[in-house]
């Protein structure tokens, strides 16, 4: 009998920005992601999804609860974790080629130049960008840039891949292509993935399991197994009775009719500032690396 292992364990996670009188972004999140699972967290804009991912990835220190990755407590940014953000244009380095962008995080992981090159070429092949290795991010479409971000994350062979609304900034057709790409590569690399989105259909289409969040401050209101099988198709899966039923169930849980627009605009601003911070951190790491 094979035992199902837990990759990520989040217990009583809470975060309040700005101390005692500040803003409670997430309330009390408890959930687990199993090894090899693709879990989606769906919640309205502004409910605290990015705050949760930042806490899990060690980018911010949560004010309550704890996070364990592979059984070990997360303090600071773990090296066996990779994050893909929504805003690809700010998370890639414009002065580096596609291949160098993908190789970049491997430098601090002690791989030789040849190993870095072969890993980068392998993942670029997998995301369909083998021919674009020497191009620069600004020469690529948005969807292709997001493929580079995904390749960069996979090149690290993370034990957990975190994705924060990774397909929210591309057109509908590209979004479908990227969703299917994710389903293919997670099989190829046997990845464990935690993806957050505000898009109900996307969460169901991609996931083995969907956690539904309440409005801010977020807590988990449902944990749904998604029995759609391994072979999914953008047309037939979305038409299936199971899919349609799950979509209504999640919509009811989210109470979409009372969703508010202003929170979305506020969250958008925050999102950008966080990506900027992350890019800054990466740039500093690169400078430090260049001196070594
Ligand atoms: N750095 C911050 N300082 C203060 N409040 C913040 C900060 N980041 C996010 N928030 C607030 O916390 C709430 C949750 O934000 P966020 O985690 O970005 O939500 P989501 O990703 O679900 O859209 C929002 O009300 C947002 O305005
Ligand atoms: Mg967000």
TrEMBL record:
Keyword entries, A-Z: ATP-binding, Nucleotide-binding, Transport
The UniProt record lists the keyword Cell division: no
Gene3D superfamilies: P-loop containing nucleotide triphosphate hydrolases (3.40.50.300)
GO MF annotations in UniProt: ATP binding; ATP hydrolysis activity
Domain ABC transporter intervals: 8-240
Region Disordered: start-end pairs: 270-292
Domain of life: Bacteria
The keyword ATP-binding belongs to this UniProt entry's keyword annotation: yes
Pfam families noted in UniProt: ABC_tran (PF00005)
PANTHER family: ALIPHATIC SULFONATES IMPORT ATP-BINDING PROTEIN SSUB (PTHR42788:SF13), TAURINE IMPORT ATP-BINDING PROTEIN-RELATED (PTHR42788)
Protein name: NitT/TauT family transport system ATP-binding protein
Originating organism: Saccharopolyspora spinosa
């Amino acid at each position: 009998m094979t035992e199902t292992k837990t990759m990520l364990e989040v217990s009583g996670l809470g975060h309040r920005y700005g101390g005692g009188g500040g803003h409670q972004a997430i309330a009390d999140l408890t959930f687990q992601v199993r090894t090899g699972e693709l879990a989606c967290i769906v919640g309205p804009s502004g409910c605290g999804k990015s705050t949760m991912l930042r806490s899990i990835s060690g980018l911010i220190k949560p004010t309550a609860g704890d996070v364990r990755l592979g059984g070990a407590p997360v303090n600071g940014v773990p090296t066996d974790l990779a994050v893909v953000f929504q805003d690809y244009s700010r998370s890639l380095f414009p002065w580096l080629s596609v291949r160098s962008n993908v190789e970049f995080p491997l430098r601090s992981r002690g791989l030789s130049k040849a190993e870095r090159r072969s890993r980068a070429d392998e993942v670029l092949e997998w995301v369909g960008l083998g021919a674009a290795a020497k191009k620069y991010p600004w020469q690529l479409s948005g969807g292709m840039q997001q493929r580079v971000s995904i390749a960069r994350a996979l090149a690290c062979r993370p034990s957990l891949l975190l994705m924060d609304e990774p397909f929210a900034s591309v057109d509908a057709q590209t979004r479908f292509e990227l969703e299917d790409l994710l389903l293919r590569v997670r099989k190829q690399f046997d990845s464990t993935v935690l993806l957050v989105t505000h898009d109900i259909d996307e969460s169901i289409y991609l996931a083995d399991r969907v956690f539904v969040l309440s409005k801010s401050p977020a807590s988990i209101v449902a944990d749904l197994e998604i029995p759609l099988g391994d072979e999914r198709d953008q047309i037939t899966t979305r038409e299936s009775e199971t899919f349609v039923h799950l979509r209504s169930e999640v919509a009811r849980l989210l109470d979409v009719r009372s969703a508010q627009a202003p929170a979305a605009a506020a969250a958008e601003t925050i999102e950008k500032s966080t990506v900027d911070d992350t890019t800054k951190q990466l740039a500093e790491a690169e400078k430090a690396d260049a001196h070594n």
